[in-house]
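As a warm-up, study this chain.
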Amino acid sequence: MSDTEKTFKRVVLKLSGEALREVGSQDNISPEIVERIAKEIAAAHKEGVEIAIVVGGGNFWRGASASARGMDRATADYVGMMATVMNALAVQSAIEAEGVACVVQSAIEMKNVAEPFIRRKANRQLGHKTVVIFAAGTGSPFFSTDTTAALRASEIGANAILKATMVDGVYTADPKKDSTAVRYETVSFETCINDQLGVMDSTAFSLCMDNNVPIMVFDLNVAGNITKAILGEQIGTIVNH
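Now compare it with the structure written out below.
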């Protein structure tokens, strides 16, 4: 694929923590799944796309759930941020094993394992074709990693957020609960917010809407979909204005 054919120059790939865990396994991270994801990222990287990644921590911890069970919400969220760093390091290791340069930038300083998040440095690294993983969320409680993806995408001027999920797009309702639910090919930010479609939280949608960052929602479980999404092939659902 030549540069003129590429749809995206720079993207943010959003991975959930659960995406790194094999269903039914006791292990929080599956090395085999992480390796598959890394190979797909590397395949797209070789085509010249600048790739940033935001990974969640739900395979280890969910701050909202812990808060509902009595834990202080801010503290619970900070624990969740630490979980995202563990996932980021696992993904970094797998990407580097594919021969691709990769750094982790953390919103919470932990200099022995990750660089601090510095926007200008991230931009330089991406421009030099280094994959950058943004860890530890926004560094503040009460914000999801979806919001982190929206914020970082806006800060680095990404062409799109690619949200890898366990379903093949955005539906009019939860397809697991409503057999009449229909998948959108494209859908507006306003519809997602007003109808509470739940693919991302309202803060993330609002940030993307305000900064004109489209979102592609696609099925992570289909082999090759990560590469296709990064290279700009329209799969799943596009959320835009």
